[in-house]
Amino acid sequence: MTKKTILRALAGETLPTPPIWMMRQAGRYLPEYRTTRAEAGDFLKLCYNPELAAEVTLQPIRRYGFDAAILFADILLLPQALGADLWFETGEGPRLSTIGDMAGVRALRPIADIHETLAPIYETVKLLAAELPRETTLIGFAGAPWTVATYMIAGRGTKDQGPAHALKSSDRAAFSALIDVITEATILYLSAQVSAGAEVVKLFDSWAGSLKGQDFTDFAVKPAARIISALKAMHPGLPVIAFPREGGDGYVGFARATGADCVAIDNSVTPEWAAAHVQIDGCVQGNLAPHHMVSGGQELVEATRHVVKAFRGGPHIFNLGHGITPDANPDNVQLMIDTVRGA
Ligand code: 1CP
Q1: Of 20, 22, 23, 24, which is best to mutate to test ligand 1, by the most ligand atoms within 8 angstroms of its C-beta?
Q2: What CATH code is carried by the domain that includes residue 139?
Q3: Rounded to whole angstroms, how far apart are CA atoms 169 and 161?
Q4: 193-224 pLDDT, tens per residue?
Q5: Nearest CA to ligand 1 atom 33
């Protein structure tokens, strides 16, 4: 069998047409997702129901034939497995119990116990590995330690990650201990996803952009390097995608410093810049602005061609610069795919 296109790009091959998938491709912009979510009852019940989670993972594959499927789950399930309370406020987003000192870090459950909570997620991966079309790559994922820590400290999403930065300066020992716990738990979590059938894993560091200077090295680069080297030791040849979102100059050399096989690029940098400074080290993923999935039209076509052209000289996986939003039009997704595939 010819190797799957995503795996070829991750191995450093420059392909005539880039393979494509989309962050948050299973999500609220799809009517079939909204139906299955209603059937599950709520978002968390959907995540922990292997049949329904596999179903929503497969929906965008059936509709669009993406080259990769990403496990349907959430980065906040790991804090929950570590003992944090987690719930979703309708129309607002996630809420968690907060951690503000060393006692809070010590009160977390032992990392080896996470599998008790996360077993249904591994079951979803197994179902998907059996059901996906043979040309489709299955991607597992976790949040990177800094991003997960921002939610565990603040108890919610924050614009500037203020509470996490505050703990980092006021109680460095507690902050570092929390990063270490998340790092080691993430290794166990991703390794179990790979054992269940994930072929690639992706680390989402959605808030990496607020780490500056030495902090970026200590809390974005180092934990990613530790996770990637541990995973590759257990699963030789496992491809890893890292997404230090809004990392700016931090993108430069990120693959070399962490061992990632591919760096996902957000749309705050131009594809030409990313080609010159990041793609020189290997595969990149990205970086069409998600708003085109709302606005569509000729601008979408031109912006899509622009991204394809800029990255044409090296290994590239086409994707958005961040997740598709609930107000996106599913027809625009088809237009993007047709444009990438040259129809
Ligand atoms: O109401 C709903 O149906 C929930 C919306 C939703 C969805 C579809 C959430 C809540 N999570 C998800 C799924 C999800 N989350 C996936 C599944 C696979 C896919 O991409 O199709 C993935 C990979 C994630 C990852 C995730 N969750 C990230 C990292 C990527 C990113 O977008 O930056 C983050 C930061 C989260 C936390 C989270 N989960 C959900 C929301 C609304 C948020 C953001 C909260 C905030 O910061 O305020």
Answers
A1: 24
A2: 3.20.20.210
A3: 13
A4: 999 999 999 999 999 999 999 999 999 999 99
A5: 206
